[in-house]
Design a protein that fits this description.
This protein has one helix at 26-33; strands at 8-10, 12-15, 18-21, 38-45, 49-51, 60-62, 65-73, 80-87, 90-99. By secondary structure, the chain is mainly beta. It has a single domain, classed as Beta-lactamase Inhibitory Protein, Chain:B, domain 1 (2-Layer Sandwich), CATH 3.30.1450. The longest helix has 8 residues, at 26-33. 11% of the residues are buried.
Length: 101
């Protein structure tokens, strides 16, 4: 069964009397929008780097990751739940979810 949740991407989000847009920092989001109702953080794998040292040695793989934070805001009844995604502290996407009832 398909989910009834429709998700839309946008480049800006109006909260309170201010606007946050792609490229803004987490500090800017908090100062303009306040604390989110939900915060989630995880590590997104980046390209691994392989090093081949001298003959007879083992290969070293550096599985680095990038810090990703997703903050969800509830702007109020009739509005859409909004998730801000930050990668390395910079806002990279804004997604609107279900309408708040």
């Amino acid at each position: 069964m398909a989910s009834s949740m429709a998700v839309a991407d946008t480049r800006s989000f109006r909260c309170k009397n201010d606007l946050i847009k792609l490229g803004d920092s987490k500090a800017s989001a908090v100062s303009k929008c306040g604390e989110p109702v939900l915060k989630d953080s995880f590590c997104k794998k980046t390209d691994s780097q392989v090093s081949t040292p001298a003959a007879g040695s083992t290969t070293i793989i550096n599985a680095a990751c990038e810090s990703v934070d997703e903050w969800t805001y509830n702007p109020g009844v009739g509005q859409f739940m909004t998730t801000l995604r930050f990668e390395s502290g910079v806002l990279t996407s804004i997604k609107y979810g279900e309408r708040v009832k």
